[in-house]
Amino acid sequence: MPEVSATKKPSGAKDATVRVSTTDPEARVMKMGDGGFRPAVNVQFGTTTDKARVIVGVDVINRGSDAGQSTPMIDQVEQRTGVRPAEVLIDGGYAQHEAIDQAAERQVPPYAPVPKPRKGETRDPHVPRDGDSKAVAAWRQRMGTDEAKEIYKQRAATAETVNADAKEHRGLDSMPVRGLEKAFGVACLFALTYDILRLITLGG
């Protein structure tokens, strides 16, 4: 309860009532794909975009937002494989300026959609803005090129297929266990099974 209370206060949420699940205290209420809100955990996978299309990073957090999660995943992939990613393809939920700066520090160019202009704005979203860091300015300009748009298309054909397989065919749309540690174990077992199946498919 104190941990949840500490996160509720600074958020300024209208509903400041603190609630904790009695069956899974580490879960947090998150918005689901069907529009509802339920206690859940957020499973993260790092996937290669080459022909192998294997999972090389796994994490489980209890925050509904993906903000700040690209940096630890980049570090984890390098630690697990011994190879730093040449680039990282992430969706808009990961593309905070701080994360882009951190990716640049690791010499890993991020590819992520630039936020669309607000209604009435005429400014080109790919033009650097006042206050942008060097890395953020470079990201804006990069995502305005045809080359970057083609590269980013790889994400839908790789990461999204892994997510779909996990939910539709492996039961990860509903965790059979409670607690972050056990949920992490389930996610790792899925990743191991998935990678073995990919190895068999590729004739390895």
Plain-language structure description:
- This protein is of the alpha+beta class and about 200 residues long.
- The chain has two domains: about 1-40, no CATH class; about 40-115 and about 155-200, Ribonuclease H-like superfamily/Ribonuclease H (Nucleotidyltransferase, domain 5).
- It has six helices and six strands; from the N terminus they run αββββαβαβααα.
- It has a two-stranded antiparallel sheet with strand order 1-2. A two-stranded antiparallel sheet has the order 3-4.
- A hairpin with a 7-residue loop joins β3 and β4.
- α3 packs across α4.
- The longest helix has 23 residues, at about 145-170.
- The radius of gyration is 19 Å and the shape is globular.
Outline:
The protein has helices spanning 2-11, 70-81, 97-105, 134-143, 146-168, 180-201; strands spanning 28-31, 37-40, 42-47, 55-61, 88-89, 110-111.
Strand content: 5-15%
- Cα end-to-end separation: 49 Å
As a whole number of angstroms, the C-alpha radius of gyration is 19 Å
Q: Could you say what the CATH architecture of the largest domain is?
A: 2-Layer Sandwich
Structural class: alpha+beta
CATH level-3 fold name of the largest domain? Nucleotidyltransferase, domain 5
Note the run of SSEs as H and E.
HEEEEHEHEHHH
Could you estimate the helical fraction of the residues in percent?
A: 40-55%
Largest sheet: 2 strands, antiparallel
Query: What is the CATH class of the largest domain?
Result: Alpha Beta
> What spatial order of strands do you see in the largest sheet?
1-2
